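Worked example 2:
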Amino acid sequence: LTASEFVWSAAGREGFVENARAMRRRVEDSIPRNQADRELKLGRGGLRDVEFTVQLLQLVHGRTDESLRVASTVEAIDALSAGGYVARSDAAELRGHYCFLRAVEHRVQLTRMRRTHLVPTSAAELRSIGRAIDRVRFATQDDFLRELERVRSRVRELHEEVFYRPIITATAGLSPDEAALDEEGARARLAAIGYIDPNGALGHIGALTRGTSRRALIQRHLLPVFISWLADGADPDLGLLSFRTLSEQIGDSHWYLALLRDSGVAASRLCRMLPNSRWIAEALSTAPEAIAWLDSDADLEARTPGALAKEVDSLIGRHPDAEDAAARTRAVRSRELLRSAMADLLIGIAPTRKAIAQATDAALIGALDIAQREDAARHGADRARVVFFAMGRYGGSESSYASDADVIACHAEAGGASAAEAAESATWIVNRVKALLGRTTSQMSVALDLDLRPEGRSGPMSRTVDSLRDYYSKWSSTWERQALLRARPVAGPAELLASAGDAIDALRWSGPLSAAGLKEIRLLKARMESERLPRGAEPARHVKLGPGGLSDVEWVVQLLQLRLASDHPAFRSPSTMEALEALVAGGAISAEDGEVLSAAWSLASRIRAGNVLTTGRMSGAKLDALPRDARELIPLARVLGYRAGSEADLEEDWMRAARRSRAVMDRLFWE
């Protein structure tokens, strides 16, 4: 090997990047502690931070890019900037700070006429060095020291941002042919690592890297690594197609490719999501700005209900047009669902995320405000005030991505309106809220379901508190009392919510379940098991209605609440899991049984959420079942944390959890 060949092949050696980083740490550790803050060359934020950063990039990328093979640090910085390997702003800072540090080093050596890299401690020497560099800017020693500290701090920041990028390590692990995206070599490589359509993938690569724009330059650096990272997912072809779609949408945005190149985590996180979740890929195509969240864990955390409510209220106030205001309200919910989905894929799919229900709450509150405003405009004044209670899984704040929003409505007269006028306005408002949230646009709609209201579909859309109380005291069925266990106040005036809540509490906590009520509940459950399972569905794989699934766990919890919660307020929670924990803590369920029920309910909920995220479907019977088809089972297992090839473990885990859950259910519910 010639010296040049030896230098420009070094980065391909195993562990090269890690060894280079370790060498920088050893150099820094070798500085005597009492000199560390004064060391211009070897210390933190010194000349070596710039040189190690620049030279590592040269060695890794210079294997395939001869423009980087220059000896001068300043020229190398310019070449890295021109090639898109570092941001132009970062390159300008590195160049300026490097030159400043060199100037300081030279002035220190000239002052003492000897080779040294230590900043002196003498006030006179410091003042002399500063004035020798710039008499105006550094008139005093403090002026000079402040600037030196600022420069060194920024150099250290840039060094750590660039020197420790994961993509550098990944690029160094590629062969020169792989890093250069040679067409024939790339086709063979794509097929070998799992791409089903290598020719199609090459077409995407060609479209992304064609031309001489800075965008194409940066994508040529990213794609060799992205190809490998995407191949670790369930569907690399989907991942690459989705990456192309996103890049064509926002590739010219100044922040997008810079984020993927410069962030420590954003690029790898994006490559984890795109091949595993069709839902996220499609959602990002309508909200690509969400990619910026990948750089910060804080951006993936759910927004508080108060913050969402304030945002929605502000949007409604600024947009008088109802349809426009409703679209923006739905957009807030869509954004928060996407945030939750991204957190699920990157952190691990949670059984439920309260953030989903909270985002729906914000949308419902906003739509109600819009409808109230419209109805008041229709009649010149408010004629009714309406409130909504969440029901079902939505009421328990246990919604999934494809969940409907079960609600019931209640109203009171306002503005001197008659009962009939108030009822007409309330009905109009409820229907308008349903329409505003159910619009089909680029923002995800919310399907409001009012079938759990008194008298079901044949009953009025909204009742007064007195009517609600009268109905519940005289005509309600046991199943209606059971449904109210998960009622949760959501939207509308607080005083009316409290009044309607009292009427609901009077029924659901009215006393221990009677023998007749117990019989009715058991008959209803038996009928549901025989009638509600979709035709052709495999009971053992149906995680909602099958043996040991969500329904079994929820009916056990609700039966115990009906029997015990009137005397034990601690058991009164609309959340299945919170109620189960309270029942265990209160001794109504053993800890072992509680753990079995919780495990089955949690895994079933994760499977349902995973089905939505992997397939992109928001409706259909398949969302409630553990897939049998490998094309759907494999990505589901992957997003649930199972390694490639261990899909059978997911099936076994579900079957075992469901079997144990059903055994507990049989004992607690039927005996």
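The mean pLDDT is 91. Strands lie at 384-390, 405-413, 448-449, 462-464, 488-491.
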